[in-house]
């Protein structure tokens, strides 16, 4: 396989994987227009559990042995704890502060990768992470935003949960003979079951659903969860986990653009600038370079890949191909649901 072919394949994989956070960005519009109000945990439950059970029925593979515990841990990190924490932050932090905290997830992923995968954070990715947070803040923050300690803690904990889930899926891979679709089903089911008692205790009985709500939940379950997470599985099995985590910055960008086109929400010049900055940070976080992309504190930089050229696909994969970070920031703010 030539260098040009490897680079083209790598770029194609990233482009296809990027469709997932773009789809996740549509969650805000669907939720506000079609779903029952003030039922975030029920919405998270309806996204995760039905999709997980459908995937289990299709694949007919269940976890066993040590993977019972691993599937439960990944399900809680990526879905069961992540969704409630992000919703709590969204409701307690007006003005898009929760969106900014969610954008910190790539930085957490860099830290967890350094500890769990022995991958030293590179200058390029640290810079991309900081610039990405800045860009998202321009899109979602408002001058009237107020800080709430519990909301800030919940937002940071949600971002950490997402980062840890991404890195652990890379570290653990998946069992021999188990496909990424089955692994996704395990995580969605485990996360959904974790949310069930929370939704019942906090929100009570499920609300009555009309035709629009049923259609909205079908969209979120089939397109926004099952299909989107399949694309995410495919991507994270082929590129570094930290690179995939930067694609999450596309969610607030997508949400803002959809709000502008479909909901008639105005975009200010500052927000448009923020969209550009966030997009630039996403791209910057994917591109290896000898001169820049070395471990923090290393002068020489990385020497394993020519500038702008992807590593050999054989170097991306582990013996057990990793699966998905099944979480997506799903938080309500004044402007976006990431």
Task: Describe the fold and architecture.
- It is built from 16 helices and no strands.
- It has helices spanning 3-17, 19-24, 27-34, 40-59, 66-80, 82-92, 97-102, 105-116, 123-140, 149-172, 180-203, 211-236, 241-247, 250-262, 269-284, 313-316.
- The chain is globular, with a radius of gyration of 19 Å.
- Residues 289-293 and 297-338 have low confidence and may be disordered.
Q: What separation lies between the terminal Cα atoms?
A: 38 Å
Largest sheet: none
Number of strands: 0
Share of β-strand residues: under 5%
Q: What gross morphology would you assign?
A: globular
Count of separate DSSP helical elements: 16
Overall mean pLDDT score? 78
Enumerate the spans where pLDDT stays under 50 for 5 or more consecutive residues.
289-293, 297-338
Return Rg in Å.
19 Å
Helical content band = 55-70%
Helix and strand composition category:
mainly alpha
Q: What pattern of helices and strands is seen along the backbone?
A: HHHHHHHHHHHHHHHH
Question: Topology, pairings included?
Answer:
Elements: H1 3-17, H2 19-24, H3 27-34, H4 40-59, H5 66-80, H6 82-92, H7 97-102, H8 105-116, H9 123-140, H10 149-172, H11 180-203, H12 211-236, H13 241-247, H14 250-262, H15 269-284, H16 313-316
Helix pairs in contact: 1-12, 3-12, 4-11, 4-12, 5-10, 5-11, 6-10, 8-10, 8-13, 9-15, 14-15
What would the keywords be for this entry?
338 residues, mainly alpha
Short description:
By secondary structure, the chain is mainly α. 67% of the residues lie in helices and 0% in strands. The chain has helices at 3-17, 19-24, 27-34, 40-59, 66-80, 82-92, 97-102, 105-116, 123-140, 149-172, 180-203, 211-236, 241-247, 250-262, 269-284, 313-316.
């Amino acid at each position: 396989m030539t260098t040009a072919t490897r680079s083209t394949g790598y770029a194609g994989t990233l482009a296809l994987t990027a469709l997932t956070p773009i789809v996740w960005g549509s969650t805000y519009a669907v939720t506000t227009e079609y779903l029952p109000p003030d039922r975030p945990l029920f919405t998270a439950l309806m996204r995760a559990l039905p999709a997980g059970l459908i995937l289990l029925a299709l694949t007919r593979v269940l976890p066993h042995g040590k993977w019972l515990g691993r599937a439960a841990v990944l399900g809680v990190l990526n879905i069961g704890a992540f969704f409630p924490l992000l919703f709590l932050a969204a409701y307690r932090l007006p003005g898009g502060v929760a969106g900014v905290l969610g954008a910190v997830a790539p930085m957490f992923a860099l830290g967890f990768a350094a500890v769990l995968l022995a991958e030293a954070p590179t200058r390029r990715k640290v810079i991309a992470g900081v610039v990405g947070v800045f860009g998202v803040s321009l899109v979602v923050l408002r001058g009237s935003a107020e800080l709430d300690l519990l909301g800030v803690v919940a937002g940071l904990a949600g971002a950490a949960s997402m980062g840890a889930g991404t890195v652990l899926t890379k570290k653990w891979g998946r069992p021999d003979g188990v496909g990424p679709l089955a692994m996704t089903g395990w995580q969605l089911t485990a996360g959904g079951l974790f949310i069930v008692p929370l939704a019942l205790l906090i929100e009570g009985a499920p609300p009555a659903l009309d035709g629009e709500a049923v259609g909205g939940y079908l969209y979120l379950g089939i397109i926004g969860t099952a299909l989107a997470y399949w694309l995410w599985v495919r991507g994270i099995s082929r590129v570094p986990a930290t690179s995939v985590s930067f694609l999450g910055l596309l969610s607030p960008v997508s949400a803002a653009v959809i709000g502008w086109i479909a909901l008639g929400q105005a975009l200010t010049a500052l927000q448009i600038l923020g969209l550009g900055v966030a997009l630039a940070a996403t791209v910057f976080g994917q591109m290896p370079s000898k001169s820049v992309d070395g471990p923090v504190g290393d002068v020489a930089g990385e020497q394993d890949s020519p500038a702008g050229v992807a590593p050999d696909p054989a170097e991306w994969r582990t013996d057990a191909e990793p699966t998905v970070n099944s979480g997506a920031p799903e938080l309500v703010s004044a402007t976006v649901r990431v």
